[in-house]
Design goal:
Helix content is about 45%, strand content about 15%. By secondary structure, the chain is α+β, with helices and mostly antiparallel strands. The strands form two sheets. It has a two-stranded antiparallel ribbon. A two-stranded antiparallel sheet has the order 3-4. The termini are far apart. The mean pLDDT is about 85.
């Protein structure tokens, strides 16, 4: 159920009779696919919905950055804050920051240039 926390790694290992590495790999897939998010110091939480779902950390970040773009604070062609800056500013994992950028890119608001950064979409992009 969205908002609920997944069992701990130890609980999942015991429940499924698998090694911790196997559980971590499975949890990484869930986080990478946007099905779960990491809450630092707490655990992994199930997320719900798609796009800019404001119940997820990446959804809130994407919405906040989109609002800055709409307000003109981030103009076309302007670089978005780096993953590291977003991670620090919002207190989230790097994967969460990446997911927020992915949501914005999928909606056509930004363009991500791998190895360079994310930029506000301009008419010529």
């Amino acid at each position: 159920m969205p908002g609920s926390f997944l069992p701990s790694e130890a609980q999942l290992c015991e429940q499924h009779g698998v090694a911790r590495g196997t559980v971590r790999a499975a949890l990484a897939v869930l986080v990478g696919d946007g099905v779960a998010e990491v809450v630092p110091g707490v655990g992994r939480r199930v997320v719900g919905g798609t796009g800019t779902d404001r119940t997820t950390a990446y959804g809130r970040i994407a919405e906040d950055l989109a609002e800055q773009i709409r307000a003109g604070t981030l103009a076309p062609g302007t670089a978005l804050p780096s993953e590291a800056a977003v991670t620090e500013q919002y207190g989230v994992s790097r994967n969460t920051a990446r997911r927020a950028f992915k949501v914005l890119a999928e909606s056509g608001v930004v363009v991500v240039r791998h190895g360079v950064g994310a930029f506000v979409q301009s008419a010529e992009s």
